Automatic annotation (TrEMBL), chain A:
It comes from Labrys wisconsinensis. Keywords: 4Fe-4S, Iron, Iron-sulfur, Metal-binding. SMART domains: NADH_4Fe-4S. Belongs to the complex I 51 kDa subunit family. The lineage of its organism: Bacteria, Pseudomonadati, Pseudomonadota, Alphaproteobacteria, Hyphomicrobiales. CDD domains: TRX_Fd_FDH_beta. InterPro entries: NADH-UbQ_OxRdtase_51kDa_CS (IPR001949), Nuo51_FMN-bd (IPR011538), Nuo51_FMN-bd_sf (IPR037225), Nuop51_4Fe4S-bd (IPR019575), Nuop51_4Fe4S-bd_sf (IPR037207), Thioredoxin-like_sf (IPR036249). This is Formate dehydrogenase iron-sulfur subunit. Residues 425-470 form the NADH-ubiquinone oxidoreductase 51kDa subunit iron-sulphur binding domain. Its cofactor is FMN.
TrEMBL record, chain B:
This is Formate dehydrogenase subunit gamma. Keywords: 2Fe-2S, Iron, Iron-sulfur, Metal-binding. It comes from Labrys wisconsinensis. InterPro entries: NADP_DH_HndA-like, NuoE-like, NuoE_N, Thioredoxin-like_sf. Its cofactor is [2Fe-2S] cluster. CDD domains: TRX_Fd_NuoE_FDH_gamma. Pfam families: 2Fe-2S_thioredx (PF01257). PANTHER family: BIFURCATING [FEFE] HYDROGENASE GAMMA SUBUNIT, NADH-QUINONE OXIDOREDUCTASE, E SUBUNIT.
Amino acid sequence: MSLHLTIPRDAGALAVGADEVAAALQVAAMARGLELTVTRTGSRGLYWLEPLVEVVTEAGRIGYGPVTPDDAEGLIEALAGDGAHRLRVGRPEDLPFLKRQTRLTMARTGIVDPRSFEDYQAHGGLEGLRKAIEIGPAAIVEAVTQSGLRGRGGAGFPTGIKWKTVADAKADRKYIVCNADEGDSGTFADRMLMEGDPFCLIEGMAIAGIATGATKGFVYIRSEYPHAVAAMEAAMTAARRGGMLGRAVLGSAHAFDMEVRVGAGAYVCGEETSLLQSLEGKRGTVRAKPPLPAHKGLFARPTVINNVLSLATVPIVLARGAAFYRDFGMGRSRGTMPIQLAGNIRYGGLAEVAFGVTLGELVDDIGGGTLSGRPVRAVQVGGPLGAYFPRALFDTPFDYESFAARDGLIGHGGIVVFDDTVDMKRQARFAMEFCSIESCGKCTPCRIGAIRGAETIDKIIAGQDVARNIAVVEDLCQTMKFGSLCALGGFTPYPVLSAIRHFPEDFDVTPHRVAAE
Amino acid sequence: MQAYEDGAYEDWNAERAAAIIAAGKDREGPLLPILHGFMAAFGYVPEPAVPMVAEALNLSRAEVHGVVTFYHDFRREPAGRHVVKLCRAESCQAAGCERLADHLEEKLGIGFGETTPDGRVTLEPIYCLGLCALSPAALIDDRVVARLDEKRLDAVLAETLR
Ligand SMILES: Cc1cc2nc3c(=O)[nH]c(=O)nc-3n(C[C@H](O)[C@H](O)[C@H](O)COP(=O)(O)O)c2cc1C
Ligand code: SF4
Ligand code: FES
């Protein structure tokens, strides 16, 4: 008898023992004389079930998880028989967590073998690129514009408009730069996509190249992601061999090739101009705009700089048409957003849904509330520069404008859940401290203001002159918001002010005041 | 990259440094790849390498120094034989990483940013490993570990810090 299993090689699965599980299953299969084939995939994003082992059957894949090496023998025995086992979760597609999702960008992640160009094509890969070659640059830009796709990296700028600017620019050389810095806490969708479906990103970048006339692409990946670096490198080699990259992309008249570059542990290098500085081999300080990167970007050439998810969404937009994509979503937020559920959460993972689902549905229904079982008290949406929302704002629809209207941001779509043990003054302090650690140093409000902010919050924590010091922090936040060159200094006020505004009780009740009463 | 195999480093030697520079210098934007090359070979960016790169790339020493010191990854001194990086960003905070931070400081007898007197372990914070759905997480040498509590952390340390 022979068995075919899939086991993720995604960093999240590895971090909870996927390699050890794979090895133990091999040993157990050998002991029973079973022939075992294992395909290493990415993760489906059901992280509470990782390592999630799936067995390939005629009725589809059946999942078991979370599997430990100790479960290997029993699992192999079950798989050799009728498949019944206490870790059996059934077909992953039938789990409520996945059933409620609309996977467009992340459709193949966790399903295909990320090292296999053949598998990619067998699952619909290259359809977008073929279409792009067929319709040509102007029609590609038009399709991306019509799809309503906005940058998934945080700012939400329309991708089609950015591409058009670069397409219209005249230059001897143009670049496509993929921003894979993903420094926000609570975000991991870029990593998952690169590890689970790297050809999709390559396809998106090649389409961007054809659309704008750029012949060279760079993927700037943060150094904290060595597994993503390895997956991208392997996929690029296979793509080159398969004729997807090189002098004639899929045999067309378009040339496009790309390279991976590794960051060096600076959060600010996720900011686009700082990233370009870093790619050029300089300190990652932020450049003033204008000139826009679209006019004068990498090595002073017109440059498209897009987030991983923005680029990886383009293939499906072209393959299925702009209208298909635009029909998902609400208001000016079109299509789907890979939302990342993290922190103290029961069902942590990746939930790609059409824009418009409420924050409460995401945290309570899809995410299942806290892992600790205690009440959810605060959620931070949009990374370290995002606001903290209390339960009272759980009716906020997940879309760019609705969050902005409530002084928040969706950023890269990370949601970090905190239970009622959280101390919001400490979270406010951390935001200031993080800004001071990661500041590029170019402007005073950010470089000095953040240090002053952390010191002042320390005084609040110590119970000194609380009301006056809160006023100082609020004033500092105004200065940072309006006096900073980029969003690192400019958005740090979001977590700080939202903590003060929505959780005032954490700032008022101090030992000092209690003692004075 | 952040994590290097234990014991994989070479002692400083100028020839090796020159080879790393030669291999990287014709790339577009060569400085970061070359500095990563030094990190991979020596475990840090040795001082005598700075003028060599400056000369090869036609930069001033101050410029190269400025880049080396800007990025958190580039060390100017070798680290301990093992490097433990505990994630202390928001998602891991929400899942209790600060308790683990105290536990590590106590267990290793050092603070964050320090190396044990015997040179065995360097303890550092890191801000997000992208394992936030499995918080708290850490990087121990080149091994990612997540869903940590004190017990699991101790077990992983016992396996890795030999
Ligand atoms: C401090 C800071 C950090 C950022 N980090 C990232 C990041 O990690 N990934 C990303 O795609 N965009 C990041 N951005 C946004 C980028 O500057 C830029 O808007 C984005 O890469 C554009 O791509 P998009 O239009 O596809 O979103 C960051 C911005 C700031 C101010
Ligand atoms: S706000 Fe901070 S990070 Fe941004 S440019 Fe100014 S100093 Fe640099
Ligand atoms: S915040 Fe710790 S892994 Fe992301």
